[in-house]
Amino acid sequence: MSPQFPPVEPYAHGLLDVGNGNRIYWETSGDPDGKPALCVHGGPGGGGRRGSRSLFDPEVYRIVLFDQRGCGESLPHASDPAVSLDHNTTEHLIADMERLREHLGIERWLLYGGSWGSTLILAYAERYPERVSEIVIAGVTTTRPEETAWLYHGVGRLLPGPWEAFRDALLPEADRGGNLVAAYNRLINSPDEAVRIKAARDWCAWEDAVIAHEALGTPGAYSDKPDDAMMAFVRICAHYFANDAWLDDGQLLRNAGRLAGIPAVLIHGRLDLASPLNTAWELAKAWPDAELKVLDDSGHTGSPAMRNAILEATERFGRRGR
């Protein structure tokens, strides 16, 4: 097994003004002159975690982390219902990543992430392929409508009890027969604080049900958040998924040809109920430079085998230099 790198602390950090009153938190650790790598967190709205640092050799990489708009240490925080999400879209996040690259004086960087981070990585790389040296994805998603429909409707066939609880938490009752994500998006933006809190908890209870079988990963990960982080996470998730992430249906797969020449490792768990394997499979077929690794013991929240596969990929790409 590849070694897990020791904890490192950032040698620089800050808040970058990206416009519309938003400032995104960023930090750099490892070797200031090393190979640049950007960690793109999931969610959307799942910022604040710093564990990705340990997936990169700090003597080889310049490790860049950032919190996307509205979450983690970025300001303003979406847990505040008065904070507008009008300027929090996929296009805004792509622009933020590019502004951060320019701010840090980086020519090209490796992109690492998974889940929603996978979608954002692909959207950025298809827009700016010349700025991407390699890509490592652990948990492939493209946020197509069919993927969102599966997560909040279809997978309920496998988990009927928790799914009915997720559905039946909605008020008014008429909303239970329609688009559940759109209904939760309305509740999480209610003027009533009690309604917002209940919606956030009910959403996360469903997300936890989908990963409850992942004994080698992190079951319970969604509800195990501070109240402010949970509120921002659900509010941003519902906002993005209710709007199909402002991406045309199938856009990222159709445009995969723009990734030609970018080496990649796509790592996906066969036990991932949240993001079934077919999306990773389709992406690998459309992207000849991408190697797909399917892990039989892993789900959406990973496993020791998934961590090992990520480490192997970052070590291999680290040897390629810049």
What does this structure look like?
The structure is a single chain. The mean pLDDT is 97. It is globular, with a radius of gyration of 19 Å. The two termini are 25 Å apart. An 8-stranded mixed sheet has the order 1-2-4-3-5-6-7-8, with helices on both faces. With 322 residues, the chain is α/β, with parallel strands linked by helices. It contains 10 helices and 8 strands.
Quick overview of this protein structure:
This protein is of the alpha/beta class. 36% of the residues lie in helices and 16% in strands. The protein has helices at residues 90-104, 116-127, 145-152, 160-168, 180-187, 193-211, 227-242, 251-254, 278-286, 304-319; strands spanning 12-19, 22-30, 35-40, 61-66, 109-113, 132-138, 264-269, 290-295.
Query: What's the helical proportion of residues?
Result: 25-40%
Which sequence of SSEs, written as H and E, runs from N to C? EEEEHEHEHHHHHHEHEH
Q: Which class best fits the helix and strand makeup? A: alpha/beta
Proportion in β-strands = 15-25%
Spans of at least 5 consecutive residues whose pLDDT stays below 50 are: none
Report how far the terminal alpha carbons are from each other: 25 Å
Biggest sheet, spatial arrangement of strands:
1-2-4-3-5-6-7-8
Question: What overall form do the CA principal axes indicate?
Answer: globular
Mean pLDDT: 97
Please tally the β strands and state the result.
Answer: 8
What integer value in Å does the Rg equal? 19 Å
Our count of helices gives: 10
Biggest pleated-sheet summary: 8 strands, mixed
